[in-house]
Amino acid sequence: MTIEVRVPTLGESVTEATVATWFKKPGDAVAVDEMLCELETDKVTVEVPSPAAGKLGDIIAAEGETVGVDALLATIAESGQAGAEETSERPAQTAAQPAESSAAEPAASVDVMVPTLGESVTEATVSTWFKKVGDTVAQDEMLCELETDKVSVEVPAPAAGILAEIVAAEGSTVEANGKLAVISGSAGAAASAPAAAASAPAPASAPSGAAGGKDVANAPSAEKAMAEAGLSADQVTGTGRDGRIMKEDVQRAVSAAASAPAPSATAPAPRAPVAAEDAGREERVKMTRLRQTIAKRLKDAQNTAAILTTYNEVDMGAVMDLRSEYKDLFEKKHGVRLGFMSFFTKACCHALREVPEVNAEIDGTEIVYKNFVHMGIAAGTPQGLVVPVIRDADQKSFATLEKEIAEKGRRARDGKLTMAEMQGGTFTISNGGVYGSLMSSPILNPPQSGILGMHKIQDRPMVINGEIKIRPMMYLALSYDHRIVDGKGAVTFLVRVKEALEDPRRLLMDL
């Protein structure tokens, strides 16, 4: 027996509705009173329950169609009839083909889960899938790459088999320990997976307002209302099923925006209108999570700390002569090249001992002084700026510093740094000179109170003992939190760094 699913009474004076969402597809098993679809009228949203248990047959009214009261929406084959039809179609399959029956049993499958992302990291964005549904995968073969606020995490296959299902598509946000995909271990899955993918109906393109983490699209009238009001989906709180945004939600958001106070001076200004002839030549690219975090942290630093920058210049001749004299011997003994960063790290550690407030941080109404130096070395990567930390840098030799700086810089560019390697820094060095910067004002890396900016080494005429000489000079910039570091301390710090670099012997004698 076939049961018809029809449009229920919609309310006084309401004669039609729009099919907003189907929660089931043809062939799905349904229980009595289980929600089949959602209809949307001008005033309310109506959920249509299943009148009987069985299997959903044909869907007569697809999503987006307008239907009248009592119109036919779909059909349901009752469970008893469905079972009888299946039995008549396969009268003696179990007895005649026992091997096929056992082969048809579901194969064991393995869920691919989000790995541990690091301390305090609760979610990530799926950036790239290296495999597609139906592909054969080997154990530990990379399936996809996740992007967190700071690092990229590659997800290996937990077992060999066929990638049967991708649960989290590219661009979606997943929580820690969330489900990413399903791997089937069946030998016959290689043939069935592509066939299933080919026979499955192509999904309708999701409306632009559909949230990335939801399975249900927003109501069509809500999409229209948001477009008219100039609102995006993330500005509206949905009250429909699974967080679906309804028309009345948009109306509430518009009313709230109208009654809200004027934005503060720190709020981002609305984008200026774009000429029609230029609109087609623009390209919109969603900011990566790393770039969003960089933007937020730098703006927070500007809004919170009283940032001031003081400058000095250093004659790099002594360091350059020392490197030229010992670089071959240094590399032969330690297996790493002698660069400039170890000199600057040592010089900063030396200066921080004399001016400890530059190595401190503010915690409420208290100042936390650090009796150690965890040196952050800013590194530019294709994804954005990251700051790996060299722990206890004040206790390490030139060779150890060079090895760690080189190794962490390489892993930063490859996106292999862990969260732990970028946490806990007490002071930061940023080298804009590698890109040709002559002078800049670096921004603090919260909650730190100081950051040193290195720049390009450039030959300049300098007056030395009454004579003009050409010297390799570099501008130094110290940005500091004036709430905790006074001008005297900042200038003293820079002078000590300058003295140590212009006469590296002072580092050996702790002068």
TrEMBL record:
<feature type="region of interest" description="Disordered">
    <location>
        <begin position="199"/>
        <end position="230"/>
    </location>
</feature>
<dbReference type="Pfam" id="PF00198">
    <property type="entry name" value="2-oxoacid_dh"/>
</dbReference>
<comment type="pathway">
    <text>Amino-acid degradation; L-lysine degradation via saccharopine pathway; glutaryl-CoA from L-lysine: step 6/6.</text>
</comment>
<keyword id="KW-0012">Acyltransferase</keyword>
<feature type="domain" description="Peripheral subunit-binding (PSBD)">
    <location>
        <begin position="217"/>
        <end position="254"/>
    </location>
</feature>
<feature type="compositionally biased region" description="Low complexity">
    <location>
        <begin position="91"/>
        <end position="107"/>
    </location>
</feature>
<dbReference type="GO" id="GO:0004149">
    <property type="term" value="F:dihydrolipoyllysine-residue succinyltransferase activity"/>
</dbReference>
<dbReference type="Pfam" id="PF00364">
    <property type="entry name" value="Biotin_lipoyl"/>
</dbReference>
<protein>
    <recommendedName>
        <fullName>Dihydrolipoyllysine-residue succinyltransferase component of 2-oxoglutarate dehydrogenase complex</fullName>
        <ecNumber>2.3.1.61</ecNumber>
    </recommendedName>
</protein>
<feature type="compositionally biased region" description="Low complexity">
    <location>
        <begin position="199"/>
        <end position="209"/>
    </location>
</feature>
<dbReference type="InterPro" id="IPR000089">
    <property type="entry name" value="Biotin_lipoyl"/>
</dbReference>
<dbReference type="InterPro" id="IPR006255">
    <property type="entry name" value="SucB"/>
</dbReference>
<feature type="domain" description="Lipoyl-binding">
    <location>
        <begin position="109"/>
        <end position="184"/>
    </location>
</feature>
<dbReference type="InterPro" id="IPR050537">
    <property type="entry name" value="2-oxoacid_dehydrogenase"/>
</dbReference>
<comment type="similarity">
    <text>Belongs to the 2-oxoacid dehydrogenase family.</text>
</comment>
<keyword id="KW-0816">Tricarboxylic acid cycle</keyword>
<dbReference type="InterPro" id="IPR001078">
    <property type="entry name" value="2-oxoacid_DH_actylTfrase"/>
</dbReference>
<feature type="region of interest" description="Disordered">
    <location>
        <begin position="80"/>
        <end position="107"/>
    </location>
</feature>
<dbReference type="InterPro" id="IPR004167">
    <property type="entry name" value="PSBD"/>
</dbReference>
<dbReference type="InterPro" id="IPR036625">
    <property type="entry name" value="E3-bd_dom_sf"/>
</dbReference>
<dbReference type="InterPro" id="IPR023213">
    <property type="entry name" value="CAT-like_dom_sf"/>
</dbReference>
<dbReference type="Pfam" id="PF02817">
    <property type="entry name" value="E3_binding"/>
</dbReference>
<dbReference type="InterPro" id="IPR011053">
    <property type="entry name" value="Single_hybrid_motif"/>
</dbReference>
<feature type="compositionally biased region" description="Low complexity">
    <location>
        <begin position="254"/>
        <end position="276"/>
    </location>
</feature>
<feature type="region of interest" description="Disordered">
    <location>
        <begin position="254"/>
        <end position="282"/>
    </location>
</feature>
<keyword id="KW-0450">Lipoyl</keyword>
<feature type="domain" description="Lipoyl-binding">
    <location>
        <begin position="2"/>
        <end position="77"/>
    </location>
</feature>
<comment type="function">
    <text>E2 component of the 2-oxoglutarate dehydrogenase (OGDH) complex which catalyzes the second step in the conversion of 2-oxoglutarate to succinyl-CoA and CO(2).</text>
</comment>
<keyword id="KW-0808">Transferase</keyword>
